[in-house]
């Protein structure tokens, strides 16, 4: 990506500085907000289409080998089951990116599944060899997660499944059986790849354009979140959509960068320019909303946000229309974009007309509204270049049939080759290896008829943190229980084979559809499917369903006990360091902006990098907060105060981004009041980070810092007439920032009083006197 493109690519949204939630409300609000943000299902048409496509692929891939075996008859070896399993798992993969990357991912998955099945068939006996092979496969699941967090987890589950089934169905080592297992797995995997590829020729995926469209859809959802009526969960919803937009932009840029070739350079640049426009428009709309929420109501008591509401709704519709036009390239959709653009510009002009230019806050709002209008016009220009019919032929060959640059470069761009292993992942992998070996040994010792169900359940239930493990265990046991009861009822009906086959197909489709929407329902259908599939080949009774339920329950219990007692990582001990890193990233972001503001420099690459860093740190804070909520109750003391710290720090980031809009090249900003406030802000964030880590800061230090902060914000100075609007805008922002910083200091004092920044498992030590730290800035 060229430097200019990088500099413009991270105009990330700065949404509103919404009112902080009070502690009594937060206890009820935060769980609901985080639960909604973590909900696996989605009601959007694109998500629905993706789920339907996955379910259809899974059914076709699985039934292909099954029907072929029925047609061949009794001469087909029993290893054909590996073809159906491999085909289904390959077809379930949600591959993204250009076609070379998709094929590379599917090819690697096929090789890994074949190797896992071969190892399972070759290591079934003796028990020591089986346990050693199990430990090896379990360890590779951590490797796949490290290399790619998107494709790693499903690949880990699929490889372990074929390995365990191969071990289960091989009583003793046989070269013939091992070879047949490998070949059938390889053949089934190839069939699964065919099922993935064939639709590309009938309905081209347009992977590059789809990545760009995802950015605009995320922007539309961000606008819709801002437009929601004020409610207790609104702030969390805006934060969720803001993070989703950042993720969509990052994935979009990575997808476009991986597809860049010399021949495609011009086409990729056009798509990147349009993605930058989505980011820039989102940032400016968020900045305008921030200014609106801190503007007092009019004399008639009606807030200006009410006048801005239809603009936000129109912006969301406009962004969705752009996403549609990017993918379809239809003139009718481009015409619809033009119509909605004209309506938006008219709405913005009407909004600006209602502002009083003699009021500093209104003048600031008018300047921000003009920036939004400018971004909309630039968006129309860049959109037309991406839809230029003269370049359509080159675009088609690039996106569908470009094979003149075959290499592993796209795959390498999607993999994480860092030598630094996440400590949480390392602990999780170690825990998984130990527990999987234990479950396998237990299944052998108890001579369970379907012994692989126990370690496999443990694998899919066990998660890196206790809260996620508990939720997954409950979902799997509940789905298996209900599915077992329904399966027992179906078996009691003694249905003919064609009816059983039809029900099995329907259950397979439902499993593929719900596996990411609702895990419990997915498990329900896969339980019925397994029982019915077994009934097609041999007589089964209700004992099979009860056996599966018992195996799932035991696997869930093992996973829960393991997460609770085997090298547990409680989020309360990790949260302070994560929050302190986010505070320091915020400070670095402010320093980059403030330096350029005083020097009259533009929004450049260093600010982009600082912004990306703090956004990643904020995302880590909220992920940690969600894990903290899932920990046992005795480790959630002071949850409201820690959430207040996280929310306040996020609002600071948004306010800093609004400040960045005041960067004007060649126009230095000179203000003694601003310099004093910037120094106090630097000191405050430094003290807060130290207090969160529990290193040096005392409650007295925090209170003294709060008093000095209040005095620095109260400073008033005359503004020059030549730069009156900017001086008033920045004075208004300083007041908002001062309020947010004071609230952060109060929340930190409350957390200190509750001992939130102390390790609850640390042994008690006699108190030691600490020298009182200076409140002055340190290097």
Automatic annotation (TrEMBL):
Main location: membrane
Subcellular compartments: Cell membrane
Integral membrane protein YccS N-terminal domain span: 114-372
GO CC annotation terms, alphabetical: plasma membrane
Ranges annotated as spanning the membrane: 103-121, 127-144, 151-170, 182-202, 481-513, 519-537, 549-570
Segments forming domain Integral membrane bound transporter: 438-561
Stretch list, region Disordered: 1-20, 756-779
rRNA-binding keyword on record: no
PANTHER family per the UniProt record, alphabetical: MULTIDRUG RESISTANCE PROTEIN MDTO, P-HYDROXYBENZOIC ACID EFFLUX PUMP SUBUNIT-RELATED
Family to which this protein belongs: Belongs to the YccS/YhfK family.
Protein's name in the database: Uncharacterized protein
Species: Nibricoccus aquaticus
